[in-house]
Amino acid sequence: MASKLPHKDVVIIGLGWSGAILANELCDEGLDVVAIERGPWRDTAKDFNIGYAPDELRYNSRQELMLRPAQLTVTARNNAGQTALPMRQFGSFHPGNGVGGAGVHWAGITWRFSPADFRLRSHYSERYGAQAIPDGMTIQDWGLTYEDMEPCYDRFEYLAGISGKAGNLNGEKQEGGNPFEGARKRDYPNPPMMQTYGPTLFAETTAGMGYKPFPIPSALLSRTYTNPLGVTMGQCTFCGFCTNYGCANYSKASAQTTVLPVLMRKPNFEARTLCEVMRVNLDSTGKKATGVTYVDSSGEEFEQPADLVILCAFMLDNVRLMMLSGIGTPYDPQTGKGALGRNFCYQMANQAVGFFDPAKYNFNNFIGGGATGMAIDEFNNDNFDHGPLGFLGGGSTRCAPIGAEPISKRPTPPGSPTWGSGWKKATRDSYLSNLSVGCEASSYADRGNFLDLDPTYKDRFGRPLMRITFDFPENDVKMSAYVTGKVAEIVRAMGAREVVENPRTRPWSVVPYQSTHVVGGTAMGADPSTSVVNPFLQSWDVPNVFTVGANVFPQNSGYNPTGTVGALAFRAADAIRSRYLKAPGPLVHA
Amino acid sequence: MSRLGLATAAAAVALFAAAGTIRADSQDYELVERGRYVAVAADCVACHSVPGGKPYAGGVRLDTPFGALVAPNITPDRETGIGAWTEDDLRRALHEGIGRGGKRLYPAMPYPAYTKMTDEDVRALWAYLTTLEPVNNAVDVNQLPFPFDIRLSMAGWNLLNFEPGRFRPDPRKTEEWNRGAYLVEALGHCGTCHTPKTALGADEDDRALEGANLQAWYAPAITTDTRTGIGGWSKEQLVAYLKTGANHATIASGPMAEEIRNSSSKMTDADLAAMATYLLDQPPPGGEAPARLAADDGRMRAGGAIYQDSCAACHGGDGAGQTHLFPTLAGSGVVQADDPATLIRLVLEGSRGVATDARPTAPAMPPLGWRLSDEQVAAVVTYIRNAWDNAARPVSAADVGKVRRAVAAR
Which residue of A lies nearest to B314 if distances are taken between CA atoms? Predict the structure, then answer.
């Protein structure tokens, strides 16, 4: 029997990027806010000591900051004809756990999605005709425009201190920035990061090929910066331990380094860590949430009543909590009806690795950072003519030396021995003279890819696990092959004597790490039959429930998602502050 | 504390200053508010409250060279606090170091500073203390060993070391300067931590504010010496430090973080400016800077290597740090203090900067004592003290061991 706790105005599930932003905004509105976080408290001072923060065995090999399968996992299969099996070690993606969430161990690449992304189906239909979108490709519009998002992106970029170079200021193209980006009202808060040799060579080469290279927008700071909340961050040292690690230098933007120092001082905010939400409670009508039920680390169950429930957990958990709570209509892949679990997408992480002459090239790959580097956008989105190509989508091409950790980063040319002195020699020859160029590409929705509750496997509380049914759609595989070919051309032009192309191919495997950019399942949109939340991230069915995360993406762009997740957090906060609180109820009438 | 409240407090102070003594009802809002502000400026809460405990209910243990004392309960509880006291009892305690019933106080209670408090401030403080929630919390104050546990021994101590008497403004100085002097010497009792002590634990008056070691911290000099003190700071920089806990060069941690959190961050800008005016107007103490160690000294070479490995990422190869995040080491008084205890302690056990509304970041120095030996800490600390334009005596492994043991014992 759950103990019933005193009422709060707002309960937020998950204290990562979204939860921290929402909590801070709603505390400023004077509301009593509690955040319930399944993982531990984490902060730079206590947890990311400079003496052990870059411990590869601990944080990369053993994934200490991430969700452990014993706590919660998912099941996966490639299609509805298979039986899904649980992931017993997270491979393909790494869900976050604990305060800061996956935003603690992210790389820091912070894009805005392109204007076309937000009206993707309309855009492609207008340019190529509706027939260009294949049957079964369920891409859709977001129900808002880039212009709606612009101020939200701006707030997130200034909160996080993003280092970059504008490519389009109020419609004016800016030399040295991304010429394909949507118009921004002002430049990034910080100048771009310095570039090491690899990205410099990439920029020279791609410029010579007629492309327009620009610095990757980075949440690793190029200089000391104090954000609008008064929190100070430090200059990145290029230590090369960002992805999978917490930052010990206050240089990587995260909830810890941008929001929590201010949020935790607020008397109307409370964080409860090591508490896992079981479900969102609904009243007898099923149209109103009354709060949440959660279990603390001693196994005791509590009911936390609240007027407003905001799901800000990892995207898979937001989708699953809605399913477990009966919020939204589950997707039926047979009929295509129901939107909850629909449009689950991923990210096509493609790459070409070049092996250069060690006598001539030394890239010093261990000097790096998760978001340093240079990029081009000629093969992203609809920046190139898809008419003759037979696929839609693309990706951001970039040379981003994230570091060269001593255990895992030992690329050797094909045909090298895999052990012994031959392998050692190949490692030695290649360590400083290999360079990878990636293309983080779009993942478009397919009727056969979806999320639902597993019929067999349960979590430690007896609740069904989330089941992922997913494979790379034909469209995306074609796109992957095309963009990877383009990337390989660049690497060859940079002078590599041998190039290995790694496009994504079917079937999707859960084993090798690819990307944590899993998206969708509670798409946002203007049409309740194909979306779970409206363009203000409010549940169509239960108006006092909102959700913020990549789970609201209807499909994935050829960009990393965090910038858009952060912007959506500000959008939801703004909708609640300026609209919902004035008149609680549906903000959009279907 | 709202801005309005601060403004009101400031107005009240101004009113009293102008009107001299005003007889008012002891429940009078302005009197109580002035008393609250006096308690803030005097940082009573620092000793008379424990973290998480009821304010002013006592309980902080103070380790003196003579043994332990625990700060008493000063809430108006009749049984365990000062509920049975009168205003005159409080005045006598603050001005003469004599508690109710003639019991002699130990100078861990800074009556050698509070003796300078004006009668008006004492009266206001009394009015404020009577409004506190009475908390029944018995505190065993005197935990000193024989013979120091005999309170009468303080009569002799007072004869030798204690000069009672109110603050006397210097008519040649401005009103602001005198207000600052009063705040530094009386209410703020800065010298309690920052002035070196004699063997008897009394202030060495001729070395006022030149830095002192207590509670295993070295409270650095706050003189105008440009090497070990704050002589290189502007008035604005000193005010920023007291107000926000951070300025262009450094961030408060350790006991000063508590002072800023409880006291100076809650004081008026005018009062902080007055303190800065006074402190920066003092003559530098003089004395020769030690010779800088040669760069090719073995300790400098070893320390420099450790510095590059473990310190430079945040504090920079040039020791400049990053403003409001990582303190500047080049030119720092804490770094170059003759007594390296605080510097060693920061390296060994790390620390967390103070968080204030203006500067909420609260960055941390990570502990490094678990991975650096006494010899390594000595080398890196010696390096920091003699790199760039710094100059200070070298530190030995024995110095580090002493601090390591003192910290472990706490």
Answer: A249
